[in-house]
Amino acid sequence: MDGKPRLLDQVRDQIRLKHYSIRTERVYCEWIKRYVRFHNYRHPLEMGAPELEAFLSDLAVRRDVSASTQNQALAALLFLYKQVLKQDLPWLGEVVRAKKPARLPVVLSISEVQQVLGSLDGEVGLIARLLYGGGLRLMEGVRLRIKDVDFSRNEIVIRDGKGQKDRVTVMPASLVDPLKQHIARTRALHQLELADGRGDVYLPDALARKYPNAPWEWAWQYVFPAPGLSVDPRSGSVRRHHLDEKRIQRAFKRAVKESGLAKLATPHTLRHSFATHLLESGQDIRTVQELLGHADVKTTMIYTHVLNRGGLAVLSPLDRI
């Protein structure tokens, strides 16, 4: 034994060095394990483009995975070769990437949004209204910190969103009072935890080292804390995490069913609906792009294809008769 870390330990070290999420860590490690198993436990340094192609082809042909899943596997393996094994990858251009099919997002009408939200109450209902009212992604909603809710400016700051970018979005005026009441209850819970010798929350490694007292400070607490304590899978610390996103997903699925909607709507549909309804009301597409945090306006333009004006806003010839 030369004391060199195992391959997956090296992968985890690099992922944490770059401050990727625990979800990304788990997903990347799982794909790397599947890749190595697929090739009878050969070391990745002994393999290259042909082996990578064979693995990705097996996913598409035999396992019939989607293009996005196949690309996720490719991203994990490229991370392994580039960031962990420090390979130049001269064969990278030979790897065929799956083309993601162009699909229009599912969008609810304003009345359908009202129906679904009307079936949701409590903190789950509050989060769902935030997702729609500010165009948040689900994880951005549950990970929201106290310091990023600005009542004086009626805005919400999204930290480290998709692509590790920050952005500012609107706080719905109708949610100001409910949010204040919810945060007051959250603060009372935090005070009780401090008195009990707890009250700390997870912070990314760099922040936790730079500000050692920050995990106990009120500003860093989650707006939507979990009802119970849990073990941090990285540090082993027992603390209160944010609300489990699966709870919102399950409640939203029930609400859609109760509303009788024949649409495959998820909590992310509220973000799509936010963008579409803003464009319908005449908001500039660049403003919507900024609120959503899209790097390219082409991403935002997909919502122009689902505006409530019929296909491509064209008047059907039947309606001219």
UniProtKB/TrEMBL annotation:
Belongs to the 'phage' integrase family. Keywords: DNA integration, DNA recombination, DNA-binding. One of its GO terms (molecular function) is DNA binding. It comes from the Bacteria. The keyword Signal does not apply. GO terms for biological process: DNA integration; DNA recombination. The keyword DNA-binding applies. Residues 2-85 form the Core-binding (CB) domain. CDD domains: INT_IntI_C. Residues 103-316 form the Tyr recombinase domain. This is Integron integrase. InterPro entries: CB, DNA_brk_join_enz, Integrase-like_cat_sf, Integrase_catalytic, Integrase_integron-type, Integrase_recombinase_N, Integrase_SAM-like_N, Tyrosine_recombinase_XerCD.
